[in-house]
Amino acid sequence: MARQALVLLIVVVTFGILVPWYKGVAFLQPWIIAIYGCMALLFVAPAAAGFWTANPDPLPTRTLIARLALLAGYGWGVAVLTLVAAVVTLNLSASRGGAFLPQSQALFAAVLVFSLTASSAMAILGALLARRFSATGARSILRGLFLAVLLVFAFGPKLFPESWQIAMTDHMTRRAVTRMAWEGSAIAVVAAVLLFAGLLDLLQKRTAKTAA
After folding, report:
1. What mean pLDDT, rounded, does the chain reach?
2. 3 state DSSP class of 100
3. CB 94 within 8 A of CB 28
């Protein structure tokens, strides 16, 4: 518990205070806000991988939903707290405060909704993988997934033709990122529903097998 609190404090101080203070107004670039929203997944994924260690089955469906929601809410809460701290830091460090958030309300709303829906899908995915394989196997799969995404962000754009890079730049505007966040939210909701159905089916099969 103390270790988790320390990690949370480090994340909030680093990304909620130091980064916006250093970057200034540049912090409000749409892709940076989007990355902050995705930060929730970094907290949900490892916790979801150990879901069945903390919640031995069988679990009633309502209890399962409640605990998965609590897990998703934890990661989302970290993202919200970090973003709020970043906006406060940005406005306090600016020569004229209070003018930044109103200009980006639609972007922040879309990113936070995506963060919540994606966290929900990630929580269910982690629990499903952990039940299908093991906590260690789930962590390995999720880490591999995150590593692949990081590699794409780090090296992918450099490998694309220049025309593609220009097109990608056009999709990094505030309006474009806001639209993609809303679309991503819809996709995450569908994914969460399908993953939860798969999790329930797996649990039912295991219960039937145990009973037999």
Report:
1. 81
2. coil
3. no
DSSP 8-state assignment for residue 120: H
Q: What is the pLDDT of residues 117-126, one digit of tens each?
A: 999 999 999 9
**Which two tokens mark 136?**
């260690």
Tokens linked to 71: 């897990």
Contact 78, 42 (CB under 8 A): no
d(CA 146, CA 160): 21
Q: Specify whether the CB–CB gap between 127 and 66 falls below 8 A.
A: no
Tell me how far apart the alpha carbons of residues 28 and 64 are, in angstroms, rounded to a whole number.
37
Smallest CA-to-CA distance from 132 within 43, 57, 72, 67 is with 57
Token pair of 143, please? Answer: 């880490």
18-21: list long-range contacts, CB under 8 Å, 24+ apart: 19/86, 20/86, 20/87, 20/89, 20/90, 20/93, 21/89, 21/90, 21/93
The Cα 130–Cα 135 span in angstroms is 5
Distance CA 4, CA 9 (A): 9
* Per-residue CA distances from 185 to 4, 17, 114 (Å): 28, 27, 4
Whole-angstrom Cα distance, residue 205 to residue 203? 5
Token readout for 132 is: 């299908």
The tokens for 167 are 């097109």
Cβ 115 vs Cβ 40: under 8 Å: yes
Express each pLDDT in 199-208 by its tens digit.
998 888 877 7
